[in-house]
Automatic annotation (TrEMBL):
InterPro entries (UniProt xref): Cation/H_exchanger_CPA1 (IPR018422), Cation/H_exchanger_CPA1_bac (IPR004705), Cation/H_exchanger_TM (IPR006153)
Native species: Actinomadura luzonensis
Coiled coil: 405-439
Protein name in the entry: Na+/H+ antiporter
Sequence similarity: Belongs to the monovalent cation:proton antiporter 1 (CPA1) transporter (TC 2.A.36) family.
Membrane-protein topology: Multi-pass membrane protein
Cited function: Na(+)/H(+) antiporter that extrudes sodium in exchange for external protons.
Membrane-spanning parts: 6-23, 30-48, 54-76, 83-106, 112-132, 182-204, 216-246, 267-288, 300-321, 342-361, 373-396
Length: 527
């Protein structure tokens, strides 16, 4: 990497983080603001290249792995029909429809290239939709479907893309061979993912070190992706399988591993996503510069047609798939409601994987055709992000879709579980006290009483959350009062430790240790 390119990427990362910070402070969807900022800045700065290998081999694996690690295997299993119909069926349907439409508009464009474009823009990126949906309280079923679709649809699209590019060099599209290639890539990804998941799970039983385990976790997505891609299997599926497996078994890891893992992947996601969405907008000048031989009206018409077909195709498929799920499911609750179907249909924002695939078109593609495919991909990505992304919150509010009932049920289930856990913990405490040979002295009794009080306080806090965190007449609940006062006490204690450090009566290493203890206690209070 040249120093100039390194400086460009550093400036992009710094600017993207600043824009994302503003978005978080204002409560705006950061991906949309980053794309808009990139579009505005693109004509004013030197072109920042979007390297396909950087996206597919550096950005994509950790983002997929983090999403899978944080997903619920059980919830995904509940909506497996919907996820399969969207991540496989919708991608195939979109690729075929878009391919035919593009071939009709541009008959000089080879048919395999038209279908390659369909495969390129077929998979949505649910990052923006999920971020907005979580903030506005989208029902869990709809969010799970969106997350599941985004986890697996890249595998389908990239496999179709390779098939189309292979047909371009071979001259024809062999459906039998293409189907077999898709099945082998999928099966190979699942097999490699399961094998690596079991291997890493066994390895974690030997480490028992939070720092080592989280360092290994940073390597896992790259190892899974490269292992699968080396044998022409689906690296996307391999990464997702490993993430789901290890995420489902995360309770077997130590508390230190879980605490560090949560922080590590939050930072990793934030860093990579900010750069990725900023890079999308920054490609404006690069994409437009390559267009030649067409009038502005022709180019705008082609872009609008592809964008419209892409959006309409998703709506048609989502409502068809919903009807199929209702017919196949014995329990209608497994199928999305009509309002949820509208939201799923409008949540088709495209992302950087589509752009990376377009930039990765082989050198044999004529420059004029390459420029057109890249432009149509770019306009579809930008169009879906800015048109659908900006209107997505208003649509959710307009339809009145809410997760309020689910949140209440969650709080009720948590309170009941806390009560059961409290009883189990207190029973274990009483058993340990009864096993002591001697009667506890006064200090030991105080410790035992503190343990009982702490358990009751945690259970009480869970029941209080059922009332929204307020007591009768809107008064502050005992748990909230305790947390507020304890936070103020912790802040006063920190000031004392820092003052003693500044007076050289306390070493910095000791200060870090006591600060960590206070920070953990405050983290528990915030939770």
């Amino acid at each position: 990497m040249s120093p100039i390119l390194g400086l460009q990427l550093l400036l992009v990362a710094g600017g993207a983080i600043a824009v994302a910070a503003v978005a978080r402070r204002k409560g705006w969807p950061a991906p949309l603001l980053l794309v808009a900022a990139g579009l505005l800045v693109s004509p004013l700065v030197p072109a920042v290249p979007l390297d396909p290998e950087l996206v597919l081999y550096v950005f994509l694996p950790p983002l997929l792995y983090s999403a899978a690690l944080d997903s619920s295997y059980l919830r995904l299993r509940d909506v497996k029909r919907a996820v399969a119909l969207l991540s496989i069926g919708l991608v195939l349907f979109t690729a075929v429809v878009v391919g035919f439409v593009v071939h009709l508009m541009l008959p000089a464009l080879p048919m395999p290239l038209a279908f390659a474009l369909g495969a390129i823009i077929a998979p949505p990126d649910a990052v923006a939709a999920v971020a907005v949906g979580r903030r506005l309280g989208l029902p869990r079923q709809a969010l799970t479907i969106l997350i599941g679709e985004s986890l697996f649809n890249d595998a389908t699209a990239l496999t179709l893309y390779r098939v189309a590019i292979g047909a371009l060099t071979g001259g024809t599209i062999d459906l039998m061979h293409s189907g077999w290639q898709f099945l082998t890539a999928t099966a190979g990804g699942v097999a490699i993912g399961l094998a690596l998941a079991v291997a890493f799970a066994w390895l974690f039983t030997l480490t028992r070190d939070s720092l080592v385990e989280n360092t290994l976790m940073l390597l896992i997505p790259f190892a899974a992706y490269l292992a699968a891609e080396t044998v022409h299997a689906s690296g996307v599926i391999a990464v997702v399988i490993v993430g789901l497996y290890l995420g489902y078994r995360m309770h077997l890891r130590g508390f230190g591993t879980r605490l560090v893992s949560d922080a590590v992947w939050k930072v990793t996601d934030f860093f990579l996503e900010t750069i990725v969405f900023a890079l999308i907008g920054l490609q404006l000048v690069t994409v437009i510069r390559g267009i030649s031989g067409y009038s502005a009206w022709q180019v705008a018409g082609y872009a609008a047609a592809v964008l419209g077909v892409t959006i309409l195709t998703r709506f048609v498929w989502v409502f068809t798939a919903t009807s199929v799920i209702k017919l196949l499911s014995r329990r209608g609750s497994r199928a999305p409601t009509r309002q949820q179907s509208v939201i799923l249909g409008w949540a088709g924002m495209r992302g950087v994987v589509s752009l990376a695939a377009a930039f990765a078109l082989p050198p044999g593609v004529p420059p004029r055709d390459r420029a057109m495919l890249l432009f149509l991909t770019f306009t579809t990505v930008i169009g879906t992000l800015l048109v659908q992304g900006t209107t997505f919150p208003a649509l959710i509010r307009r339809l009145g879709v809410s997760s309020d009932q689910e949140q209440y049920e969650d709080r009720l289930a948590e309170a009941a579980a806390q009560q059961a856990a409290l009883e189990a913990g207190l029973a274990e405490l009483e058993r340990l006290v009864a096993e002591q040979d001697n009667e506890p002295d006064e200090i030991q009794k105080q410790v035992i009483d503190q343990l009982r009080e702490k358990s009751w306080r945690r259970s009480l806090s869970a029941w209080e959350r059922l009332g929204g965190g307020t007591g009768q007449g809107g008064a502050e609940t005992p748990s909230n009062l305790y947390r507020r006062l304890r936070r103020e006490m912790l802040q006063a204690e920190r000031q004392v430790f820092v003052r003693l450090r500044d007076e050289r009566r306390l070493d910095d290493e000791v200060l870090r240790e006591v600060m960590a203890q206070l920070d953990f206690e405050e983290a528990i209070l915030e939770r």
